[in-house]
Every structure is written in C-alpha cells, then in structure tokens.
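User: I'm new to structure prediction. If I give you an amino acid sequence, what do you actually give back? Let's try with this one:
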Amino acid sequence: MSGGSAPALRSRDVISILSALLTLAVFVSLHGCASEGGGAEAPTAGRETAGVEPTPPRPDEGIPLGPDRLAERLRSTRDSLHRAIDRWRAGTERRERAPREVTLYALHQQRIYVLLTSREKLARAVRARLRGADAAEARDTLAARRRLSSLASPVPRRRFRTGPALPAAVLQRYYRKAERRFGVSWKVLAAVNLVESAFGRVRNKSTAGARGPMQFIPSTWEAYGMGGDVDDPRDAIMGAANYLRASGAPESYRRALYAYNPSRSYVDAVLRYASRMRHDRRAYFAFHSWQVFVHTPSGIRRITGPGITP
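Assistant: Good question. You get back a string of structure tokens that encode the predicted 3D arrangement of the chain. For your 310 residues, that looks like this:
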C-alpha cells in the first residue's frame, strides 16, 4: 500500500482482532454473561437506601433478567456511576487514576450492556422502560455495540496482550491538543481510541501490521505520523487527527472515518460513542473505566479489571 493513500485499517484480519473486544462488539450468550456475572440476581446492587450511597457492586455481581428490574438496575447503576465520577473529578486531590467505586460501577454497567446486546428482545423491553437520558444512553450504546458485532470473530485468548491505559485526564489533554491543531473533535478522537484499543489497554499488533493505540499500518503512519512513535499515545492521537483532517474532518466525519476504516458499521459506532460524550460530560470517564472483554472460541472472557490475575 502507498503511504499517502492507505487507510489506518484495511485488512479483515485487523478488524477481526480488534472488534473481538467487547468494548467494541458484544454478541455474548446468556451463558457467557452468567459465568462472568456470578449468578442470577442481586437485587440491591447500585441502589440507594435512605439517602445513603450504596456499596459498589462486586465484579461478579449478579444481573437481574426481568425487564422491569433490569431497567431499574441500569438506571440506578448509571446514577451511582455518575455520582462517583463527580466525587472523583471534584476531589481536592484530583487523583488521576479512577477510584475503585468508579471502576466497579462502570464494570457493572458494561456487563449489563454485554447482556442486552446479546438479547435483542430483552433489550427492547428494557429500553421501553427507560426515559430521557437513560434511554438515549442505552439507544446509542447498544447501537454502537451491535454495529461492531457484525465485524467480530472469535480470537484465542493467548493472542491478546494488555496493559494499563493512561489516565483519562492525560489522554483528554492529548485529544484536546490534537483538536486545537487539526480541528478534529476530541470526542471523535476519544471514540476512535476506545474502539481501536480500549484506550490503549489492548497492545496487539495485527496480522496486517497495524499497531499502537490508534492502530495504524506502517505506510499510513509514515505518511501521517509526523515522525512520531506509533506506540506513544500522544503521537498516535496527533497522527489520527492529522489523518482524519486530511480525509475530510471536521466537514464530514463520516467520510473521514470511512477512510480510517472502510466499514459503515465502524463509522456509525464511533459516531455513536462520540455522540454520548458530546451529550454527557461524564460519558468519557465512564467509557475510559470500562474493561476489556474478548470473544474467544470458548466464550466471552474478561481479561482486565478487578479480580483478574495478570
């Protein structure tokens, strides 16, 4: 491929590896969710009692299966997650790493969406019981995950390498710097980073040679990486903004993202996640706190986060 015209991703092999992340695509079976979920139900998880903030759910907290209780669980988990994010961001110490309560609420929310993406009838029933911002979040999140599920195929667990993501605030500074230079929305850059590598948690090099947190093939990086290090998050984000601007952003994000990865499902998913971040200032911090789930030949496996042995 020529460096000036080659997109960041072309190979179906690249898509099959990256879209196996359940931050991207979710087609988990109920059995898979139950084995990760640790049981049938835990009706008090994420609820407030007499004005007291509830204890965050365990990593394997059970998820109710009835639409009424599941809709309430999704609402209460979102509310508790938002309050936890607000406490974190308003804290006097402003620590960079998310506190444990944010991590646990975000994981529980993610696991609910894993279940709902795999069970369309249940998802419709739950969405019918949601209103306002809760309904909008469920609509966009489930649509994004379903779009990318069509691109996924099972990948053996041993092929995944992971590491910690940079703190959310650090990455946000990089996105904003790239936005100022190239005029590409920082929310779109963050959504690409989420979809491509779970904010850098997934460290795979694809069979086509794509690498780094924004997943560039060498020829594209040579043309748009501005001499930086493709594995360095700051350089990779700047290179992605450069490429998207050259491909039509911000005038047409759809055209630019399609050049980045020629899949309409990919484009729609990225824009759905970006829309969530545009409409909800906490959404970025929630997405950043999500963990890596992978679709393996033996089922869905969570490979990062609380309770996972490195």
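You can read the tokens as a compact description of the fold. Here is one thing that stands out. Residues 30-158+292-302 form one domain.
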